[in-house]
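In this section we walk through a basic example: taking a raw amino acid sequence and producing a predicted 3D structure, encoded as discrete structure tokens. The instruction is simple. Fold the sequence below.
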Amino acid sequence: MSTLEVNTINPQSGNDVTIGGSSKNVKFASGTTVDFNTNTPTLTLGAAMKATPAFEARGSAEQTGVSDNTWTKVSMNTEIFDTDSMYDASTNYRFTPTTAGKYYVYAMMSLYGGTSDQLQIANLGIYKNGSNYKYLSNNFNNSYPHNEAALFLSTVVDMNGSSDYVELYGRANVLSGNVTFEPQNTLGLFGAYRIIGA
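The resulting token sequence is shown next.
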């Protein structure tokens, strides 16, 4: 093995310097500091190094008239971001990533009864391919029904990168009347991102 000691390496022609080759690893000696700040260089990440596809969405208004004690899809129709245009914010309100992997999926929403102090049970569910994958349940004492419940749920979902999709559903049981979802503004969100290296 030979040692090359220089202060600066510049390309002989063109704009690139190639180090290593096919099936070769570039290793740094123990104690070496790799400085990515000097002269503000541009760092380009490969697709495998990015936590994408990723999205986050929320609702634009209250979702009223929801049937009592019935799992109902939440209309998260306003995108906050969608890195690869894989979230449907207009029709199905679902995330269908075309990159296989494990995804961290998270959601938050408030639910309440049509009239005050009627809420007995509040559920929030992450659905995969049309079936309940994980859900959170608040079951209140029948003698002390609530007015509103704010729920947060997260889980890791394996996605095949072709047909798998996730959606957000809610369910509430009230003593009387209908149910209202509050997925808008600061009360609701639904998002996911790919976990690097998982």
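Looking at the output, two observations stand out. The chain has a mean pLDDT of 90. The two ends are 36 Å apart (CA to CA). In the next section we compare this with other chains.
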